[in-house]
Amino acid sequence: MPAQRPGNTLAAGHSGVTGETVSALPTVEVPDRPAPARPEEPREVHVGEPLPKRRRYGGETYFKSLTTVGGSAVLAIIAAIALFLIIEAVPALSANKENFFTFTKWSPNALNDAHFGIASLAFGTILSAAIALLVAVPIALGIALYLSHYAHRRVATILGFAIDLLAAVPSVVFGLWGREFFAVPVQDLSIWLNKYLGWFPLFASDGRFGHSVLLGSLVLAIMILPIVTSLSREVFMQTPREHEEAAMALGATKWEVIRTAVLPYGRPGIVASVMLGLGRALGETIALAMTLGSSFVISWSVVEPGGNTIAANIANAFGEANDQGRSALIASGLVLFAITLIVNMTARAIVRRRKRFLAAATT
Amino acid sequence: MAKRIEADNVTAYYGSFKAIEGVNMVIERKSVTALIGPSGCGKSTFLRSINRMHEVIPNGRVEGTISVDGQNIYDKDVDVTAVRRMIGMVFQRPNPFPTMSIFDNVVAGLKLVGVRRKGELQVAAEKALRGANLWEEVKDRLDKPGAGLSGGQQQRLCIARAIAVEPQVVLMDEPCSALDPISTLAIEDLIGELKDSYTIVIVTHNMQQAARVSDRTAFFSLEKTGDPGRLVEYDETQKIFTNPGEKRTEDYITGRFG
Ligand SMILES: Nc1ncnc2c1ncn2[C@@H]1O[C@H](COP(=O)(O)OP(=O)(O)OP(=O)(O)O)[C@@H](O)[C@H]1O
Ligand SMILES: [Mg+2]
């Protein structure tokens, strides 16, 4: 039945009051239900009446302009932030006596003698985020699969709630905990790794252990675990039942169902959740400022004291920075912005490639 | 290939709800058996009991025994995945794996049992697609997504996927209900051919279809909503449609009921 405009109501009235009417359906006796046609909801369409006019200023139009404004506002804000960062960064960058991209140290405060570069910070940012992902993603996906496909419903609810709680812990608490408590077992782990795998550059050390990239990365891993877990769990639970049953009917075991139906279906969602985790890892500030060793060298060793990230360095250096120092820190923020942007765009490209295959299916 | 199925006093539950009760039935090898009956009488439930797919539904439970060539598939130490490989299933809605190509869909079951060699998979895929009357239509686009086929082609793809693992029995739950008359005919013809190698059980709401494709027909019904469904009559299709033994069967197939 086509929707009726309120204007038709009076004219239409009940069946056959005015003009010709086309009866919708032959009336069927329905014993225990009220008669379907109520006076205020006419069930007839008048033959020969013009179609209702399109409304020029309906809710549709308002909603459309609202969404357009919202969309452009986001773009405008991003552009404004980028512009702000660039303008603020210029003074320090022009005063810099070193190549900003290759120099590793950070002493930007001296007025006519500024030496600073992003190299070691960018390296540390990417290294610690990468290790955090490497550790967190397999664990998170494992937990997510356990919650969505293996665990008893009650266990899944409780565990899911606990993981959401973990997401609610403030990062400064993670930083304190990492620094004061978690550092001890990580140091033991570092010594062990160095002893047995010391030939591998990541675990090389000159005998000193402590606030290292490993500590920061592991704290970071715990921090991004909840996001990746709860998002990918959500994705896994949305796997259409019929795909899982198709796999089961072929004689798939639970793990095979996951491999043939759940994981392929959830791939774009997994990528998205990992990217959110990575975004958090790249931008995490205070927990890393508290757990990393704040050094300015490019070193592959994750067990030696050291490590630094762009965000952590901003937190550490902001306090004693003068105008020029702040300008230099903003320049480093610009680099972080660019890294995050590149990561996000790569993720989108991966998701899009998948979508193209699926889109080919529907055309 | 093709096996004889014996259902003995099969009762199936969803939680505490008893969906079918006391079904006894012998399904002959290399025959087509149609399950008919009003909506909700438990046709799908019974069909899914035959390959132990009923129990994948939370709280789904089956009592009684179903034997395939004398072996009870509900025995404690029977490997469920082996049962499901032996008894393939085609669902009401075509459900190819959406992220897989046509080829990968067909060989999905083979890959599960560990067939990896490309040549072997290709031979098997062609055989299954030919068996499902789909080969000519897709042979030039095997690497395209399976979900990109028409509904009827998708359903035949699912049939190809089911027969690629060379099961003994193929179960079909209203395989034509989402299809146009042409695709329906194509699948009915296919069922006629598959009968030479497989035991087929098909659920259908289409009386003509049941009459056309099946050798034997089972009529399920239930007294009133909330009651479990029961097998009312089971006989040669010819007999069910011309001279049913039960009044209820006659009422149903002549459209006076349900
Ligand atoms: N997942 C489920 N959970 C609970 N009850 C169910 C479930 N699936 C089916 N039932 C119930 O079991 C009974 C039998 O259902 P079944 O799907 O086997 O009927 P059917 O004969 O296949 O019907 P149709 O012809 O409509 O497909 C119905 O009463 C139905 O409501
Ligand atoms: Mg059904």
TrEMBL record, chain A:
<feature type="transmembrane region" description="Helical">
    <location>
        <begin position="285"/>
        <end position="303"/>
    </location>
</feature>
<dbReference type="InterPro" id="IPR051124">
    <property type="entry name" value="Phosphate_Transport_Permease"/>
</dbReference>
<dbReference type="GO" id="GO:0005315">
    <property type="term" value="F:phosphate transmembrane transporter activity"/>
</dbReference>
<feature type="transmembrane region" description="Helical">
    <location>
        <begin position="209"/>
        <end position="231"/>
    </location>
</feature>
<keyword id="KW-0812">Transmembrane</keyword>
<keyword id="KW-0592">Phosphate transport</keyword>
<feature type="transmembrane region" description="Helical">
    <location>
        <begin position="158"/>
        <end position="177"/>
    </location>
</feature>
<keyword id="KW-0472">Membrane</keyword>
<feature type="region of interest" description="Disordered">
    <location>
        <begin position="1"/>
        <end position="46"/>
    </location>
</feature>
<comment type="function">
    <text>Part of the binding-protein-dependent transport system for phosphate; probably responsible for the translocation of the substrate across the membrane.</text>
</comment>
<feature type="domain" description="ABC transmembrane type-1">
    <location>
        <begin position="122"/>
        <end position="347"/>
    </location>
</feature>
<feature type="transmembrane region" description="Helical">
    <location>
        <begin position="328"/>
        <end position="347"/>
    </location>
</feature>
<dbReference type="Pfam" id="PF00528">
    <property type="entry name" value="BPD_transp_1"/>
</dbReference>
<dbReference type="InterPro" id="IPR011864">
    <property type="entry name" value="Phosphate_PstC"/>
</dbReference>
<dbReference type="InterPro" id="IPR035906">
    <property type="entry name" value="MetI-like_sf"/>
</dbReference>
<dbReference type="GO" id="GO:0005886">
    <property type="term" value="C:plasma membrane"/>
</dbReference>
<keyword id="KW-1003">Cell membrane</keyword>
<keyword id="KW-0813">Transport</keyword>
<feature type="transmembrane region" description="Helical">
    <location>
        <begin position="116"/>
        <end position="146"/>
    </location>
</feature>
<feature type="transmembrane region" description="Helical">
    <location>
        <begin position="62"/>
        <end position="87"/>
    </location>
</feature>
<comment type="similarity">
    <text>Belongs to the binding-protein-dependent transport system permease family. CysTW subfamily.</text>
</comment>
<protein>
    <recommendedName>
        <fullName>Phosphate transport system permease protein</fullName>
    </recommendedName>
</protein>
UniProtKB/TrEMBL annotation, chain B:
<dbReference type="GO" id="GO:0035435">
    <property type="term" value="P:phosphate ion transmembrane transport"/>
</dbReference>
<dbReference type="GO" id="GO:0005524">
    <property type="term" value="F:ATP binding"/>
</dbReference>
<keyword id="KW-0067">ATP-binding</keyword>
<dbReference type="InterPro" id="IPR003439">
    <property type="entry name" value="ABC_transporter-like_ATP-bd"/>
</dbReference>
<keyword id="KW-1278">Translocase</keyword>
<dbReference type="GO" id="GO:0016020">
    <property type="term" value="C:membrane"/>
</dbReference>
<dbReference type="GO" id="GO:0016887">
    <property type="term" value="F:ATP hydrolysis activity"/>
</dbReference>
<protein>
    <submittedName>
        <fullName>Phosphate transport system ATP-binding protein</fullName>
    </submittedName>
</protein>
<dbReference type="InterPro" id="IPR005670">
    <property type="entry name" value="PstB-like"/>
</dbReference>
<dbReference type="GO" id="GO:0005315">
    <property type="term" value="F:phosphate transmembrane transporter activity"/>
</dbReference>
<feature type="domain" description="ABC transporter">
    <location>
        <begin position="5"/>
        <end position="247"/>
    </location>
</feature>
<dbReference type="InterPro" id="IPR017871">
    <property type="entry name" value="ABC_transporter-like_CS"/>
</dbReference>
<dbReference type="Pfam" id="PF00005">
    <property type="entry name" value="ABC_tran"/>
</dbReference>
<dbReference type="InterPro" id="IPR027417">
    <property type="entry name" value="P-loop_NTPase"/>
</dbReference>
<keyword id="KW-0547">Nucleotide-binding</keyword>
<keyword id="KW-0813">Transport</keyword>
<dbReference type="InterPro" id="IPR003593">
    <property type="entry name" value="AAA+_ATPase"/>
</dbReference>
